[in-house]
Amino acid sequence: MILTNSDRIFDTQLNTQRYRVSMKTTFYLRTDNMIQGKNPIYLRISGNSMPSERIHTYIYVDEKNWHSKKQRVFENCQEHIDINLILMNIEAKLTQIQTFYRLAELSLTPKILRAEYEDKLSRVNFVAFFKAAIPEQKMKVGEERLERYETIYHKLKEFQPVIAFKDLDLKWIEKFKAHLRDNLKNQDTTIASNIAIVKKFLGIAKKEGIKLQFELDDLEVGSTKGNRTYLLASELQKCLNFYFSEFINPSYKLILGYFLFSCMNGLRISNVQGLKRTDLMSNDFSIILVKGNHDKNMILNKTARRILEHEPRLFEQKFANQHLNDEIKKIMSVLGINKKVTFHVARHTFATLFLKAGGKIEMLKMLLGHSSIVQTMIYVHIVQAEANEEMFLLDDLFKIKAAV
User: Fold this and answer.
1) Is residue 253 a contact partner of residue 261, using CB atoms and an 8 Å limit?
2) Using CA atoms, how far apart are residues 329 and 332, in angstroms rounded to an integer?
3) Using an 8 Å Cβ cutoff, are 124 and 97 in contact?
4) Pick from 18, 99, 141, 293: most CB atoms within 10 A?
5) pLDDT in tens, 45-75
6) Rounded to whole angstroms, how far apart are CA atoms 312 and 277?
7) In this predicted model, which residue has the larger pLDDT, 392 or 176?
8) DSSP 8-state code for residue 217
9) Alpha-carbon gap, residue 352 to 360, rounded angstroms
10) How far apart are CA 15 and CA 18, in angstroms?
């Protein structure tokens, strides 16, 4: 639910009289909309001369069992306990929202109260705000990033389903980090990445005029780079041999085919999911970059073409991202590759082996679709670090005896 400027009020524009406007909530029965002999209970929210809002509770009762003055079901009704309890819970939630707004000194209108009640856009509960803000990011990021946002939303909800903005401070952030580390066993880089996204959504909230209890610049995310896991040339060859062998399980063959195809061109999982087999019939094809949202033309090398032609189901039968990652881990275990491999490792494998084969960093930047050469340089550092380790190989050639 998008709120207009007239529905919002920033702290610097706070009008004390405005935010103290009392909301009147009334349950009533609609007699013009009967279903199977029962009428729906609606909730009306009004406030002085402001336009009122109407909410369908999706509760139906017989008109003769409804007490209009008490706004409750008569006790002689068989379902009166359950229905009245639900109505009490609705009132309690509305009261909680109004209390939060009063204490946070935020303006409240019937329209905003309805949005809060329906969790369409929460200016009180950060978890609800996070969920409501995800769809608005759809035009700015790819499906893969949206899935990450959804994952982090569920982590937040699991940790604390309701956290008021007024209670969200740096100490709370540290507690959330501890939950990710101790309970979910997330790695440091994963935690940093999660906190970076939490910080982004807090920034969105701040732009919406929601008052935060700390400066965003004081929230330290940490390094999200970490070590780029990739397959060595020998490990990639082992995967290719398994893929082209006659002993591979058909289900493994299809999953591994997608992974190896990406190893040959560095495609993200979202790009692989978006391609159809008909798109790959010629040597060149087009993808949409996650960042920038523009087309990029690519060509298939010979190995990618062999991988594609070896499995007719490739780009015909698709799987959910999580299923792909789960199956890839099983395949690596079968092959004795003791690395934490996800689909994204294919992209790192392509980039690293491309540079090892003599490819230029400028060309790799274009192939990966990076907006800045800084992003691509991480792979140069990986190759350089590996080369430095090989300096010790000479020590094995010359064994110098220690002086007596």
Assistant:
1) no
2) 5
3) yes
4) 141
5) 998 778 899 999 888 888 888 999 999 988 8
6) 9
7) 176
8) G
9) 11
10) 5
Backbone dihedral angles phi then psi of residue 291, each to the nearest 5 degrees: -100, 125
Residue 53, phi then psi, degrees to nearest 5: -120, 145
Pick the residue with more confidence: 327 or 389?
A: 327
d(CA 85, CA 196): 41
Identify the bridge partners of residue 284 per DSSP, sorted by sequence position: 299
Q: Is 0.70 surpassed by the pTM of this model?
A: no
Band the pLDDT of 8: cuts 50, 70, 90: very low
- 7 within 8 A of 112, measured Cβ to Cβ: yes
Contacts of 73 (CB under 8 A, 6+ apart): 61, 65, 66, 67, 79, 80, 83, 84
How far apart CA 89 and CA 95 sit, in angstroms, is: 10
Would the CA dihedral through 118, 123, 126, 130 be positive or negative? positive
Specify whether the CB–CB gap between 340 and 348 falls below 8 A.
no
Q: DSSP code of 38?
A: B
Residues 6+ apart with CB under 8 A from 402: none
pLDDT 10s digits, 309-356: 999 999 999 998 889 999 999 999 999 999 989 998 999 999 999 999
Q: Tokens 């919406």 — which residue?
A: 208
Which of 262, 188, 268, 193 lies closest to 231 in space, CA to CA?
262
Distance CA 404, CA 402 (A): 6
- Structure token digits, residue 30: 């609609």
Please give the full DSSP string across 284-329, using - where no structure is assigned.
EEEEE-TTT--EEEEE--HHHHHHHHH-TTTTTS---HHHHHHHHH
Pairing of strands 39-47, 50-61: antiparallel
DSSP state of 280: G
How far, in Å, are 114, 300, 389 from residue 151 at the CA level?
27, 33, 37
Distance CA 66, CA 72 (A): 6
| Those residues with Cβ within 8 angstroms of residue 335's Cβ, 6 or more apart along the chain or in another chain | 235, 238, 239, 242
Position 121: which residue type? L
Distances (CA, A) of 292 to 82, 139, 142, 259, 329: 52, 10, 10, 25, 31
Asked if residues 108 and 21 have their Cβ atoms less than 8 Å apart, the reply is yes
